[in-house]
Amino acid sequence: MWEVMKNPWDRHSNPTGAVNLGVAENHLMEAELRDYVTKHVALRSSVVTYQDGPLGSHRLREALARFLSRHLATHRPLDAAHIMVTNGVSSALEHVAWALADPGEAFLVGRPYYGEITLRLRPHVRTVPASFGDVDPLSLPAVRCYEEALLRAREQGQVVRGLLLCSPHNPLGRCYPREVLVALAALCNKYQLHLVSDEVYALSVWRDAPTFTSVLALDLDSLIDPALVHVLWGVSKDFGANGWRVGCLVSPRNPALRAALSSIAIYSYASSLADAVVTQVLQDDAFTSAYLAENRRRLAAAYAFTTDFLQRHGIPFAAGTHAALFVWADLGWAYRRCHPRSEREQATTIADDVRDALRRHKVYLASGDNFDSESPDMFRIVFAHPRDRLEEGLRRMHQALLQGGIGVPAGDQPCAPVDIGMPLALAQTPAVGRQALAAPASQGRSLLS
């Protein structure tokens, strides 16, 4: 990944560079954010100091409290004291793991999940993955799958301290229905687990189906000990500002946790310069409302362009995406249509072949094993790019599927059209099962189209 980022494609200055559709960055609003900051941010002399300390400036924490109370529609208004600013959401997650779990203890996560979680929890904290089979992982029946995974872990002597959610989901790009969040909160209360909700894509919901619900929008007192509930948020995704490195932990009802984390906050000190910039942005209600609305419009258009491409070229993908920056596509299935193999070879080599083919064509996508996917042939395609870059990346991806990986020749015959009844083991879909895959059977197009 890092080698790809060192050699970025540009239509004019570097046409032979690599196209990165794998890293979850939002490039759709860069000019607007740059222009706003250039025009409106007046820096105080305090930006060269430590300001108010490692928890973030009081101005920023007040701005975050007001902004998140409004946009997350919290059941209770947030206060600056409820918030700890960190240099990115990853640092906030790492701090939560340090404070809530002892060495060898674990957090429950649902598959597929953002693979970097295993790196952010510190080496001594483990993950207990919940598998769902044919159950939609964002549905009410999935709550039972979480409970079963928890009970199995306990039977094996594993101490589980919390449940980690990414809401909206990464990599599925969907929101948890309110009733599912209620059931998960009740499950956590039953077993006294901390409920940690990473809501870094909360404001990147571009189609209301269903609408986004923050766990802080629930009446927690009726569901769970509120001290067990914590939210992570940052500007990286919703504002397309990964490089600013500003995130936060919101824990309104657990002063003991906030006190514990204040002792290590110096290790995640956000830059005073970034602190000042984010404060100005979040205080400007007119700008943030217009910016977020335009961002949602552009995300919806980019998603439509990407899925139209996938449909026209017979590449199946998980239906129902309505949030975040990506689509979850089965490139392994599409690859096999042009490069048939034995069942044993398909099971053991197809994802590696796809990665080799993508590498050869200088396009990077994150593969299913990065997300501990139950279907290893899945790949996450990030579509939040300018149209020319997105189009070039999809073109290269298509060519990689046609021509194969290193030492694998392309098939002599056109690949057969995708059939809606294809035998595809994809559990991570909203309607559960093969009918939930978007496939252009009626168009009768092949992967060679």
Account of the 3D structure:
By secondary structure, the chain is α/β, with parallel strands linked by helices. It has 2 domains: 2-29 and 289-438, Aspartate Aminotransferase, domain 1, CATH 3.90.1150.10; 44-285, Type I PLP-dependent aspartate aminotransferase-like (Major domain) (Aspartate Aminotransferase, domain 2), CATH 3.40.640. The protein contains 13 helices and 14 strands. The chain has helices spanning 2-5, 30-40, 58-71, 89-100, 117-120, 140-155, 178-191, 255-262, 272-283, 285-312, 331-338, 343-360, 387-403; strands spanning 19-20, 83-86, 106-110, 126-130, 160-166, 194-198, 229-234, 247-250, 317-318, 326-330, 363-364, 366-367, 378-382, 437-438. Strands 2-8-7-6-5-3-4 form a 7-stranded mixed beta sheet, sandwiched between helices. Strands 10-13-12 form a 3-stranded antiparallel beta sheet. A two-stranded parallel sheet has the order 1-11. Strand 3, helix 5 (117-120) and strand 4 (126-130) form a beta-alpha-beta unit. Helix 11 packs across helix 12 and helix 12 packs across helix 13 (387-403). It is globular, with a radius of gyration of 22 Å. It comes from Dichotomopilus funicola. Belongs to the class-I pyridoxal-phosphate-dependent aminotransferase family. Residues 41-396 form the Aminotransferase class I/classII large domain. InterPro entries: Aminotransferase_I/II_large, Ethylene_sulfur-biosynth, NHTrfase_class1_PyrdxlP-BS, PyrdxlP-dep_Trfase, PyrdxlP-dep_Trfase_major, PyrdxlP-dep_Trfase_small.
